[in-house]
Design goal:
3 copies of one chain form a homotrimer. By secondary structure, chain A is an alpha/beta fold. Chain A is built from 12 helices and 11 strands. The first copy, chain A, has a 5-stranded parallel β-sheet with strand order 8-7-6-9-10, covered by helices on one side.
């Protein structure tokens, strides 16, 4: 695809070489995100960061990514106070707001809303999550993380062995990631969930049509024993009839250091879309894994900034100018790895 | 008036040559708003964008206008959480906040509050709307739009024929616009509203004292047939005893493409202060007009940025420096007209 | 202490020469805060301004201080919408958010939360107030104000005579200020409060152990008659069983111009942490003092910007670079003293 001026609405719009391009640009963003260098390439540009549904992490990640390229950010959070709640159409909102910025990132609780908005916008729109539908930058940062973790071992995404664990029925992130994996070759996917929370059938079929091997199980330990990536997700309590029903599933997908040591191959990478529920009763991904160098959950979050910087640079067509506007960071750069 | 360091609180403070000056500066802002050029003239300056009442559109428009001049924006939205709600006086708030910025834009639900605040502020204050009282930048952008639409036909504001339609009793925007029109000559104003929602008598008298011709009617179609501008406003349901009462008035002021074709002169310009209620039952300004090139409602919104940029440049006395700090925009500039 | 890369969590971490250093750097910030000069020293740097509890004044003060140094600000306000409320640990939040910024300012309703957050952060963290625990930048700006007010009279903090007035039991600011004063010599402290709202015993002992003279009284007028500084605090109605109980104490600590004239030495300086309750029934610090040149409450607020700029410059190690990146302000600089 030609990125210049394009909207980023769905992972379905990407072919494999588009992904390659995004990741190649994301790689070049590392020195900026790690504060070795800074760049003014988007000095004077404005991001409209329109979060009609709250999401601190995603909102700040997009805003910081734009700041790291030298641009300014105008922001909206919440729905009730906006004109949308007074009957304004997404068409009108888009026509107006696109006069205030150079690119818009939008999150909205309704599926399809961001695409509808994008049709009327005069500037590129990036989907920051539209309800149960899509959250394409999360899928991209997950795949970018998988690619980087494998790369550090001299491997590629082709040939990946991955377990997806937990609530695979409702988890938007594992759905999108599965679709992206269909662009690659020869992947083994272990789907570990209670039957009631199984991955939707159409996604399983897509994976098999792509030539991937899919195994389905309700049992955690045997299925995390031969994978490169263990991708854990949250049991989303709010989706169940009662807390009691949710609790039935909880302990069975718990991953902690002793389970990891006993069952996983030595360098199995652990991922999670965050936020992780760290309360004692959560039984999800224990904090005793925090010192395990294979816990990649915070590298995932850091990668989100790189991927979002890359998308901004591509849709605004400045990827080739980033370095020309760069300079050394003169301030304390933090304790980064 | 001398703009440098002045507050912009009310349209009453302007004479005709002040308006001319604002509009002349607004004209010079077009290449920046349309992202052909960028400027760093206010690099290092800070706007305190204090919205003690929510208004996404106006807030972002002010913030973006300041960013477009190269400045930074600090922002507050909402009232409950602020010190004002703990009994702090506007005097104290102004003394404190004016130490944090170079210019303040303030919206507040109480009439007169912004003027009171401005008395204690050490930096210029721009009224972003103080309750039922004034919203001077909206009036300026409306008049700027009228002037531009006429100008593109080789005409001037003098001699304008305008219909104001809908709830003329409660509509702050049509009140302010009427007052501004008193600075011009030989205008025909058609006031179209139900008797119960008529324009206040004192404004009608002002228009007549200015030498303008005013006609008053409850009937839409005959009164939009010989005008340059049809300025439609929202039936503000919240002002009525009941939804049913509001509904009595609604259909009568509906403007859609077929009514436009049947009754209006070919190039009649349609304006509306936005947001427009686009729900099917609204019967206000139909979306089948969206492709009509004479629908100026989004040009109005865009003009808001130009007028606000002009006001910032004038009160901070940098209008003559904008171009000196300018550079070409290296990023994709959007699909703008 | 070595400021570079350090967290600013508590006033307990400072020795007297650390305070001297902060104040010396704060002094150099005056031309920037007063808009005679601007600086780009932190151009490209990002402040994560994380206010998980609302505080317009403190939040905007930190944000503006960072903007005044040329940096960008990403912001969060409120708690409910954040991942913290879904069970995310402060450890996880810190690991993630510290990837989005160069320094974090955090306010949080729970005592100790900011320190816990700071342990996991990869960038310096400044405590913007953690519940009943600490608000170190408020204590520093209070002491900086005392030092400046005395300095203008050729005096030093050593030898200070200060009255602290009002609710000394709950007032976080007077507690912290008392602890900072223990770093100085030969101070007379008059504690004026109802017995029920007395300064905690351990703080009184600290003051005495530092060699200071402490007098305790329930009576205002005699105890403000021989002081350099009268530091008034709010009767915090929300701490009492009833409004009626709070009202018992209110009138007794009222300070207005006639009381000032009758009882205070001519140049006694009046301070207050703000916000001041200016409603007629508040009986706290009357607005008839507003023209009194010894009312320092707004100089306190202005000093907050200087102290915060100094802390940013010190923890990011750019204090020596500020002037190199400086330029004259070309815009109207406001009506500043």
């Amino acid at each position: 695809m030609n990125f210049t001026g394009s909207n980023i609405l769905s992972i379905k719009q990407f072919e494999r070489n588009d992904i390659d391009k995004i990741f190649a640009v994301a790689d070049t963003m590392k020195p900026y995100a790690q504060r070795k260098r800074a760049t003014r390439v988007l000095d004077g540009a404005i991001l409209g960061n329109m979060f009609f549904e709250a999401s601190t992490r995603t909102r700040v990640s997009f805003g910081s990514a734009f700041n790291l390229l030298g641009g300014a950010v105008r922001e909206t959070t919440g729905f009730e106070s906006s004109a949308l709640s007074k009957g304004e159409s997404l068409y009108d909102t888009a026509r107006v707001l696109s006069g205030y910025s150079d690119v818009i990132c939008m999150r909205h609780p309704e599926a399809g809303s961001v695409s509808e908005f994008a049709k009327a916008s005069r500037v590129p729109v990036i989907n920051g999550g539209d309800g149960a539908n899509e959250h394409p930058t999360q899928a991209l940062l997950d795949l970018y993380t998988i690619r980087n973790e494998l790369q550090s071992k001299g491997r590629e995404v082709d040939g990946l062995r991955i377990a997806m664990i937990g609530d695979l029925k409702h988890g938007r992130t594992v759905h999108s990631l599965s679709q992206l994996l269909c662009l690659y070759n020869n992947i083994h996917v272990s789907l570990v969930s209670p039957k009631e929370l199984a991955m939707p059938e159409y996604l399983i079929e897509s994976l098999r049509e792509a030539g991937h091997e899919v195994t389905i199980s309700e049992e955690l330990t045997t299925h995390i024993s031969h994978v490169d990536i263990a991708y854990s997700t949250r049991i989303q309590e709010e989706r169940f009839q009662s807390k009691e029903e949710a609790d039935l599933y909880r302990g069975r997908f718990r991953l902690n250091q002793s389970i990891y040591t006993q069952y996983c191959e030595p360098n199995t990478v652990i991922m999670h879309p965050l936020p992780r529920d760290s309360r004692a009763e959560a039984n999800e991904l224990d904090s005793d894994l925090d010192q395990n160098p294979n816990l990649a959950i915070f590298r995932q979050a850091d990668n989100g900034v790189l991927v979002r910087m890359a998308l901004f640079a591509l849709v605004l067509d400045v990827a080739h100018l980033v370095e020309k506007s760069a300079y050394d960071v003169p301030w304390f750069p933090g304790h980064r790895d």
